[in-house]
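Chapter summary example.
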Amino acid sequence: MNNNPFARQKWLKQLAELWPALKGSLAKVYKPCIRKNCPACARGDKHPAWLLSFSAQGRRKTMYVPLALVPTLRKALHNGRKIEQLLYRAGPQMLQQHRQSLKKRLPRAANR
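The structure predicted for these 112 residues follows.
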């Protein structure tokens, strides 16, 4: 495995620039509230709410999200997708670097 310190520093810099990051999804839903005499619910209108869905220990979980946190979570989800793309590219890049290092180490065969 390639332990190139420059590649490691580049990787760490890319990750640091992509904070905050998370994996999951954010959805806006409409639900009735818990107040007994809510005029909006009495008309059949529902209240907007934001939900974050994610996996934890192999199970799908959902949490309510305060409206003030929605922009931060959107950015974190976007960054999480970018990190996922970096991870998908990392394997092929490691293989290419390994093959290039092997080519540099192996002596060229003389024309036969």
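To summarize the output: The helical segments are 5-17, 39-42, 70-105.
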